[in-house]
Protein backbone atom coordinates (compact mmCIF):
# COMPACT_ATOMS: atom_id res chain seq x y z
CA UNK A 1 0.00 0.00 0.00
CA UNK A 2 1.36 3.45 -0.89
CA UNK A 3 1.57 6.21 1.72
CA UNK A 4 -1.16 8.10 -0.06
CA UNK A 5 -3.52 5.13 0.16
CA UNK A 6 -2.52 4.66 3.81
CA UNK A 7 -3.26 8.30 4.62
CA UNK A 8 -6.61 8.31 2.81
CA UNK A 9 -7.91 5.22 4.62
CA UNK A 10 -10.07 5.92 7.66
CA UNK A 11 -9.14 3.12 10.05
CA UNK A 12 -11.37 4.57 12.78
CA UNK A 13 -14.36 4.30 10.46
CA UNK A 14 -13.41 0.70 9.60
CA UNK A 15 -13.72 -0.23 13.30
CA UNK A 16 -16.69 2.05 13.97
CA UNK A 17 -14.95 4.06 16.71
CA UNK A 18 -14.09 7.72 17.15
CA UNK A 19 -10.58 9.09 16.68
CA UNK A 20 -10.42 9.63 20.46
CA UNK A 21 -11.29 6.00 21.27
CA UNK A 22 -9.25 4.32 24.00
CA UNK A 23 -7.12 1.23 23.39
CA UNK A 24 -9.74 -0.92 25.14
CA UNK A 25 -12.54 0.49 22.96
CA UNK A 26 -10.51 -0.22 19.83
CA UNK A 27 -9.76 -3.77 20.97
CA UNK A 28 -13.42 -4.43 21.84
CA UNK A 29 -14.65 -3.14 18.47
CA UNK A 30 -12.05 -5.17 16.58
CA UNK A 31 -12.84 -8.42 18.40
CA UNK A 32 -16.54 -8.12 17.63
CA UNK A 33 -15.99 -7.31 13.93
CA UNK A 34 -13.30 -9.99 13.55
CA UNK A 35 -15.57 -12.58 15.14
CA UNK A 36 -18.55 -11.62 12.97
CA UNK A 37 -16.55 -11.56 9.71
CA UNK A 38 -14.08 -14.37 10.33
CA UNK A 39 -13.75 -16.69 7.28
CA UNK A 40 -14.43 -19.72 9.47
CA UNK A 41 -17.80 -18.23 10.46
CA UNK A 42 -18.61 -17.17 6.89
CA UNK A 43 -17.38 -19.92 4.56
CA UNK A 44 -17.41 -18.85 0.91
CA UNK A 45 -18.42 -15.25 1.72
CA UNK A 46 -15.84 -13.07 -0.08
CA UNK A 47 -17.34 -9.84 1.26
CA UNK A 48 -16.95 -11.03 4.85
CA UNK A 49 -13.38 -12.12 4.08
CA UNK A 50 -12.50 -8.69 2.67
CA UNK A 51 -14.15 -7.02 5.65
CA UNK A 52 -12.13 -9.26 7.97
CA UNK A 53 -8.92 -8.17 6.21
CA UNK A 54 -9.91 -4.49 6.44
CA UNK A 55 -10.64 -4.54 10.17
CA UNK A 56 -7.46 -6.55 10.80
CA UNK A 57 -5.43 -3.95 8.94
CA UNK A 58 -7.12 -1.12 10.86
CA UNK A 59 -6.50 -2.86 14.17
CA UNK A 60 -2.84 -3.51 13.35
CA UNK A 61 -2.31 0.27 13.04
CA UNK A 62 -4.57 1.60 15.80
CA UNK A 63 -3.56 -1.02 18.40
CA UNK A 64 0.11 -0.03 18.09
CA UNK A 65 0.70 3.26 19.93
CA UNK A 66 3.61 4.30 17.70
CA UNK A 67 1.79 3.46 14.45
CA UNK A 68 -1.37 5.18 15.63
CA UNK A 69 0.54 8.35 16.53
CA UNK A 70 2.21 8.39 13.11
CA UNK A 71 -1.12 7.76 11.37
CA UNK A 72 -2.93 10.50 13.32
CA UNK A 73 -0.18 13.08 12.82
CA UNK A 74 0.13 12.35 9.12
CA UNK A 75 -3.64 12.58 8.50
CA UNK A 76 -3.78 15.81 10.50
CA UNK A 77 -1.03 17.39 8.42
CA UNK A 78 -2.61 16.29 5.14
CA UNK A 79 -6.13 17.34 6.13
CA UNK A 80 -7.65 20.73 5.54
CA UNK A 81 -5.93 21.47 2.22
CA UNK A 82 -2.46 21.98 3.72
CA UNK A 83 -0.90 19.26 1.59
CA UNK A 84 -3.95 17.47 0.32
CA UNK A 85 -5.67 17.46 -3.05
CA UNK A 86 -6.28 20.93 -4.42
CA UNK A 87 -4.26 22.49 -1.56
CA UNK A 88 -0.51 23.04 -1.48
CA UNK A 89 1.16 23.21 -4.90
CA UNK A 90 4.99 23.06 -4.92
CA UNK A 91 6.66 26.04 -6.55
CA UNK A 92 3.72 28.44 -6.18
CA UNK A 93 2.84 31.14 -3.69
CA UNK A 94 6.16 33.04 -3.81
CA UNK A 95 6.74 35.73 -6.43
CA UNK A 96 9.58 37.67 -4.89
CA UNK A 97 12.99 38.00 -6.44
CA UNK A 98 16.49 39.08 -5.70
CA UNK A 99 18.31 37.68 -2.69
CA UNK A 100 15.07 36.29 -1.35
CA UNK A 101 14.28 34.26 -4.44
CA UNK A 102 14.31 30.48 -3.91
CA UNK A 103 16.06 29.17 -6.98
CA UNK A 104 15.82 25.58 -8.17
CA UNK A 105 18.14 23.37 -6.18
CA UNK A 106 18.60 25.96 -3.42
CA UNK A 107 15.59 24.94 -1.35
CA UNK A 108 14.16 21.47 -0.86
CA UNK A 109 11.21 20.84 1.41
CA UNK A 110 12.86 17.58 2.42
CA UNK A 111 15.40 19.70 4.34
CA UNK A 112 12.60 20.66 6.68
CA UNK A 113 11.89 17.09 7.66
CA UNK A 114 14.66 14.79 6.52
CA UNK A 115 17.00 15.84 9.35
CA UNK A 116 14.39 15.84 12.09
CA UNK A 117 15.69 14.46 15.34
CA UNK A 118 14.10 11.79 17.50
CA UNK A 119 12.49 14.55 19.53
CA UNK A 120 10.70 16.10 16.55
CA UNK A 121 7.58 13.91 16.88
CA UNK A 122 8.76 11.66 14.08
CA UNK A 123 8.37 14.23 11.30
CA UNK A 124 11.33 12.77 9.46
CA UNK A 125 9.62 9.38 9.42
CA UNK A 126 6.26 10.86 8.48
CA UNK A 127 7.63 12.55 5.37
CA UNK A 128 10.49 10.22 4.55
CA UNK A 129 8.46 8.49 1.84
CA UNK A 130 7.16 11.69 0.33
CA UNK A 131 10.11 14.11 0.28
CA UNK A 132 13.81 13.39 -0.25
CA UNK A 133 16.79 14.80 -2.03
CA UNK A 134 16.64 12.85 -5.26
CA UNK A 135 17.49 9.78 -3.63
CA UNK A 136 18.90 6.43 -4.58
CA UNK A 137 18.53 5.37 -0.93
CA UNK A 138 15.71 3.06 -0.10
CA UNK A 139 13.24 4.90 2.13
CA UNK A 140 11.18 3.58 4.99
CA UNK A 141 8.11 3.65 2.76
CA UNK A 142 9.65 1.24 0.28
CA UNK A 143 11.05 -1.32 2.69
CA UNK A 144 9.29 -4.69 2.79
CA UNK A 145 6.22 -4.29 4.96
CA UNK A 146 6.12 -6.43 8.09
CA UNK A 147 2.98 -8.48 8.53
CA UNK A 148 0.29 -7.38 10.97
CA UNK A 149 -0.04 -8.88 14.43
CA UNK A 150 -2.90 -11.33 14.91
CA UNK A 151 -4.98 -11.94 18.04
CA UNK A 152 -6.90 -15.06 18.99
CA UNK A 153 -8.32 -16.68 22.14
CA UNK A 154 -8.37 -20.09 23.78
CA UNK A 155 -10.13 -21.49 26.85
CA UNK A 156 -8.45 -23.90 29.28
CA UNK A 157 -9.58 -25.92 32.26
CA UNK A 158 -8.40 -24.71 35.67
CA UNK A 159 -5.96 -27.58 36.15
CA UNK A 160 -4.59 -27.25 32.59
CA UNK A 161 -3.81 -23.59 33.22
CA UNK A 162 -2.22 -24.35 36.59
CA UNK A 163 -0.03 -27.20 35.38
CA UNK A 164 0.67 -26.00 31.83
CA UNK A 165 -0.49 -27.62 28.62
CA UNK A 166 0.19 -27.71 24.87
CA UNK A 167 -2.86 -26.88 22.77
CA UNK A 168 -3.39 -26.81 18.98
CA UNK A 169 -5.02 -23.68 17.56
CA UNK A 170 -6.67 -23.80 14.15
CA UNK A 171 -6.51 -20.40 12.47
CA UNK A 172 -7.37 -18.86 9.13
CA UNK A 173 -5.11 -15.89 8.36
CA UNK A 174 -2.76 -14.48 5.70
CA UNK A 175 0.35 -16.73 5.62
CA UNK A 176 3.45 -17.05 3.42
CA UNK A 177 2.61 -18.68 0.10
CA UNK A 178 3.75 -22.30 0.20
CA UNK A 179 4.41 -22.34 -3.55
CA UNK A 180 6.80 -19.36 -3.88
CA UNK A 181 7.82 -19.29 -0.16
CA UNK A 182 6.71 -15.66 0.10
CA UNK A 183 8.76 -14.19 -2.78
CA UNK A 184 5.74 -13.62 -5.04
CA UNK A 185 7.64 -14.95 -8.06
CA UNK A 186 6.89 -18.19 -9.87
CA UNK A 187 9.13 -21.04 -8.65
CA UNK A 188 12.40 -21.02 -10.59
CA UNK A 189 12.28 -17.24 -11.10
CA UNK A 190 13.15 -14.24 -8.93
CA UNK A 191 11.99 -10.62 -8.66
CA UNK A 192 14.26 -8.10 -10.41
CA UNK A 193 15.30 -4.63 -9.32
CA UNK A 194 12.97 -1.97 -10.66
CA UNK A 195 14.90 -0.09 -13.40
CA UNK A 196 12.90 3.11 -12.97
CA UNK A 197 13.68 3.69 -9.27
CA UNK A 198 16.81 1.48 -9.06
CA UNK A 199 15.28 -0.43 -6.17
CA UNK A 200 14.58 2.61 -3.98
CA UNK A 201 10.80 2.36 -4.36
CA UNK A 202 10.47 6.11 -4.98
CA UNK A 203 10.95 8.42 -7.94
CA UNK A 204 11.81 12.13 -7.81
CA UNK A 205 10.64 15.01 -9.95
CA UNK A 206 11.04 18.76 -9.82
CA UNK A 207 8.12 21.13 -9.82
CA UNK A 208 8.97 24.76 -9.50
CA UNK A 209 11.42 25.32 -6.68
CA UNK A 210 10.85 21.97 -5.02
CA UNK A 211 12.12 18.46 -5.40
CA UNK A 212 9.20 16.08 -4.90
CA UNK A 213 9.41 12.33 -4.36
CA UNK A 214 6.59 9.81 -4.59
CA UNK A 215 6.19 6.01 -4.66
CA UNK A 216 7.31 4.46 -7.93
CA UNK A 217 4.31 3.50 -10.07
CA UNK A 218 6.17 0.71 -11.86
CA UNK A 219 6.95 -1.32 -8.73
CA UNK A 220 4.30 0.24 -6.46
CA UNK A 221 6.95 1.34 -4.01
CA UNK A 222 8.44 -2.12 -3.43
CA UNK A 223 11.67 -1.57 -5.35
CA UNK A 224 11.31 -4.80 -7.31
CA UNK A 225 9.31 -6.10 -10.25
CA UNK A 226 7.96 -9.60 -10.73
CA UNK A 227 7.81 -10.56 -14.41
CA UNK A 228 6.38 -14.03 -13.82
CA UNK A 229 4.11 -13.95 -10.74
CA UNK A 230 3.32 -17.01 -8.69
CA UNK A 231 0.01 -18.40 -9.92
CA UNK A 232 -1.16 -19.31 -6.43
CA UNK A 233 -0.69 -15.94 -4.68
CA UNK A 234 -0.74 -13.72 -7.83
CA UNK A 235 2.59 -12.15 -6.89
CA UNK A 236 1.72 -11.02 -3.37
CA UNK A 237 3.67 -13.78 -1.62
CA UNK A 238 0.71 -14.26 0.72
CA UNK A 239 -2.13 -16.78 0.86
CA UNK A 240 -5.15 -16.79 3.13
CA UNK A 241 -5.00 -20.33 4.46
CA UNK A 242 -6.04 -22.40 7.44
CA UNK A 243 -3.24 -23.74 9.59
CA UNK A 244 -2.79 -25.43 12.94
CA UNK A 245 -0.38 -23.81 15.39
CA UNK A 246 0.82 -25.62 18.49
CA UNK A 247 0.87 -23.29 21.51
CA UNK A 248 2.71 -24.22 24.68
CA UNK A 249 0.92 -22.63 27.62
CA UNK A 250 3.33 -22.36 30.59
CA UNK A 251 2.30 -23.49 34.09
CA UNK A 252 0.50 -20.93 36.22
CA UNK A 253 -1.05 -18.84 33.44
CA UNK A 254 -3.75 -16.48 34.73
CA UNK A 255 -7.20 -15.81 33.29
CA UNK A 256 -6.96 -13.05 30.68
CA UNK A 257 -3.20 -13.38 30.25
CA UNK A 258 -1.76 -12.98 26.73
CA UNK A 259 0.91 -15.25 25.27
CA UNK A 260 3.08 -13.94 22.44
CA UNK A 261 4.25 -16.21 19.62
CA UNK A 262 6.83 -14.27 17.62
CA UNK A 263 6.56 -14.55 13.85
CA UNK A 264 3.29 -16.50 13.87
CA UNK A 265 1.05 -13.60 12.81
CA UNK A 266 0.14 -12.31 9.37
CA UNK A 267 2.75 -12.87 6.68
CA UNK A 268 4.79 -9.90 5.48
CA UNK A 269 4.62 -8.71 1.88
CA UNK A 270 6.98 -10.55 -0.47
CA UNK A 271 9.06 -12.28 2.16
CA UNK A 272 9.07 -9.48 4.76
CA UNK A 273 8.99 -10.63 8.41
CA UNK A 274 5.68 -11.95 9.69
CA UNK A 275 3.82 -10.26 12.51
CA UNK A 276 3.32 -11.83 15.92
CA UNK A 277 0.46 -13.92 17.26
CA UNK A 278 -1.07 -12.97 20.62
CA UNK A 279 -3.18 -15.64 22.34
CA UNK A 280 -5.49 -14.50 25.15
CA UNK A 281 -6.09 -17.34 27.63
CA UNK A 282 -9.41 -17.75 29.44
CA UNK A 283 -9.49 -20.11 32.43
CA UNK A 284 -12.61 -22.00 33.53
CA UNK A 285 -13.56 -22.11 37.21
CA UNK A 286 -12.95 -25.38 39.09
CA UNK A 287 -15.46 -27.15 41.37
CA UNK A 288 -12.82 -27.93 44.02
CA UNK A 289 -9.94 -25.47 43.77
CA UNK A 290 -9.64 -21.72 43.92
CA UNK A 291 -6.50 -19.70 43.39
CA UNK A 292 -4.70 -16.89 45.22
CA UNK A 293 -1.57 -16.04 43.28
CA UNK A 294 0.54 -19.20 43.21
CA UNK A 295 -1.42 -20.76 46.09
CA UNK A 296 -4.30 -23.19 45.61
CA UNK A 297 -7.28 -22.93 47.94
CA UNK A 298 -10.00 -25.39 48.90
CA UNK A 299 -12.67 -25.75 51.60
CA UNK A 300 -12.61 -28.99 53.64
CA UNK A 301 -15.90 -30.02 55.31
CA UNK A 302 -15.35 -31.58 58.77
CA UNK A 303 -17.56 -32.67 61.64
CA UNK A 304 -17.62 -31.03 65.06
CA UNK A 305 -16.12 -34.14 66.58
CA UNK A 306 -13.20 -34.07 64.12
CA UNK A 307 -12.45 -30.48 65.06
CA UNK A 308 -12.54 -31.26 68.80
CA UNK A 309 -10.72 -34.61 68.77
CA UNK A 310 -8.49 -34.03 65.74
CA UNK A 311 -8.13 -36.21 62.66
CA UNK A 312 -6.24 -36.70 59.37
CA UNK A 313 -8.21 -36.15 56.15
CA UNK A 314 -7.19 -37.01 52.55
CA UNK A 315 -7.56 -34.01 50.24
CA UNK A 316 -6.96 -33.64 46.46
CA UNK A 317 -4.04 -31.77 44.88
CA UNK A 318 -3.14 -31.11 41.25
CA UNK A 319 -1.18 -34.36 41.06
CA UNK A 320 -2.83 -36.80 43.48
CA UNK A 321 -3.97 -36.70 47.08
CA UNK A 322 -2.27 -35.77 50.34
CA UNK A 323 -3.15 -36.28 54.02
CA UNK A 324 -3.92 -33.11 56.00
CA UNK A 325 -3.68 -33.31 59.80
CA UNK A 326 -6.43 -31.47 61.69
CA UNK A 327 -5.07 -30.83 65.21
CA UNK A 328 -7.36 -31.42 68.26
CA UNK A 329 -9.27 -28.28 69.22
CA UNK A 330 -9.12 -26.72 65.73
CA UNK A 331 -11.56 -23.84 65.35
CA UNK A 332 -13.99 -23.58 62.46
CA UNK A 333 -12.55 -21.54 59.57
CA UNK A 334 -8.89 -22.20 60.39
CA UNK A 335 -6.58 -22.37 57.35
CA UNK A 336 -4.14 -25.27 57.22
CA UNK A 337 -1.12 -24.88 54.92
CA UNK A 338 0.41 -27.71 52.87
CA UNK A 339 3.66 -26.38 51.47
CA UNK A 340 4.70 -26.94 47.86
CA UNK A 341 1.38 -28.40 46.66
CA UNK A 342 0.05 -25.28 44.94
CA UNK A 343 0.53 -23.85 41.44
CA UNK A 344 3.91 -24.65 39.80
CA UNK A 345 6.07 -21.60 39.20
CA UNK A 346 7.67 -20.81 35.84
CA UNK A 347 11.26 -21.85 35.39
CA UNK A 348 10.96 -24.82 37.72
CA UNK A 349 10.90 -22.82 40.96
CA UNK A 350 9.23 -23.98 44.15
CA UNK A 351 5.46 -24.30 43.71
CA UNK A 352 2.99 -22.35 45.77
CA UNK A 353 1.14 -23.83 48.75
CA UNK A 354 -2.20 -25.56 49.21
CA UNK A 355 -4.39 -23.60 51.64
CA UNK A 356 -7.07 -25.78 53.25
CA UNK A 357 -9.90 -24.00 55.08
CA UNK A 358 -11.75 -26.28 57.53
CA UNK A 359 -15.49 -25.70 57.77
CA UNK A 360 -17.73 -27.56 60.18
CA UNK A 361 -20.65 -29.39 58.60
CA UNK A 362 -23.77 -29.35 60.82
CA UNK A 363 -26.12 -32.36 60.43
CA UNK A 364 -29.69 -31.39 59.52
CA UNK A 365 -31.25 -34.58 60.94
CA UNK A 366 -30.17 -37.04 63.65
CA UNK A 367 -31.62 -40.41 64.60
CA UNK A 368 -32.65 -41.12 68.17
CA UNK A 369 -29.33 -42.72 69.11
CA UNK A 370 -27.28 -39.77 67.87
CA UNK A 371 -29.69 -37.30 69.46
CA UNK A 372 -29.46 -39.03 72.84
CA UNK A 373 -25.66 -39.11 72.64
CA UNK A 374 -25.51 -35.43 71.73
CA UNK A 375 -27.83 -34.48 74.62
CA UNK A 376 -25.65 -36.48 76.99
CA UNK A 377 -22.57 -34.71 75.65
CA UNK A 378 -24.25 -31.30 76.12
CA UNK A 379 -24.94 -32.11 79.78
CA UNK A 380 -21.34 -33.18 80.30
CA UNK A 381 -20.14 -30.03 78.56
CA UNK A 382 -22.19 -27.82 80.89
CA UNK A 383 -21.02 -29.79 83.89
CA UNK A 384 -17.38 -29.21 82.93
CA UNK A 385 -17.99 -25.44 83.05
CA UNK A 386 -17.46 -24.82 79.32
CA UNK A 387 -19.28 -21.69 78.15
CA UNK A 388 -19.06 -20.99 74.39
CA UNK A 389 -20.05 -17.35 74.99
CA UNK A 390 -17.60 -16.61 77.78
CA UNK A 391 -15.91 -13.29 77.01
CA UNK A 392 -18.31 -12.55 74.19
CA UNK A 393 -19.03 -8.81 73.86
CA UNK A 394 -22.76 -9.50 73.38
CA UNK A 395 -23.13 -11.43 76.61
UniProtKB/TrEMBL annotation:
Annotated PROSITE patterns: DNAJ_1, DNAJ_2, ZF_CR
Residues in CR-type zinc fingers: 164-242
Cofactor field: Zn(2+)
Protein's name in the database: Chaperone protein DnaJ
Keyword Glycosyltransferase: no
Function: Participates actively in the response to hyperosmotic and heat shock by preventing the aggregation of stress-denatured proteins and by disaggregating proteins, also in an autonomous, DnaK-independent fashion. Unfolded proteins bind initially to DnaJ; upon interaction with the DnaJ-bound protein, DnaK hydrolyzes its bound ATP, resulting in the formation of a stable complex. GrpE releases ADP from DnaK; ATP binding to DnaK triggers the release of the substrate protein, thus completing the reaction cycle.
Keyword Nuclease: no
Entry comment, domain topic: The J domain is necessary and sufficient to stimulate DnaK ATPase activity. Zinc center 1 plays an important role in the autonomous, DnaK-independent chaperone activity of DnaJ. Zinc center 2 is essential for interaction with DnaK and for DnaJ activity.
Stated family: Belongs to the DnaJ family.
Record domain CR-type: where: 164-242
Pfam families, alphabetized: DnaJ, DnaJ_C, DnaJ_CXXCXGXG
Primary localization class, coarse: cytoplasm
Domain J positions: 10-75
Description of how the protein assembles with itself and partners: Homodimer.
Superkingdom per UniProt: Bacteria
Residues where Zn(2+) 2 binds: 194, 197, 216, 219
InterPro entries, per database record: DnaJ, DnaJ_C, DnaJ_domain, DnaJ_domain_CS, HSP40/DnaJ_pept-bd, HSP_DnaJ_Cys-rich_dom, HSP_DnaJ_Cys-rich_dom_sf, J_dom_sf
Binding-site positions, Zn(2+) 1: 177, 180, 230, 233
The entry's keywords: Chaperone, Cytoplasm, DNA replication, Metal-binding, Repeat, Stress response, Zinc, Zinc-finger
Subcellular localization: Cytoplasm
Organism this protein belongs to: Antrihabitans spumae
UniProt-listed SUPFAM superfamilies: Chaperone J-domain (SSF46565), DnaJ/Hsp40 cysteine-rich domain (SSF57938), HSP40/DnaJ peptide-binding domain (SSF49493)
Cofactor stoichiometry and binding remark: Binds 2 Zn(2+) ions per monomer.
Placement of CXXCXGXG motif repeats on the sequence: 177-184, 194-201, 216-223, 230-237
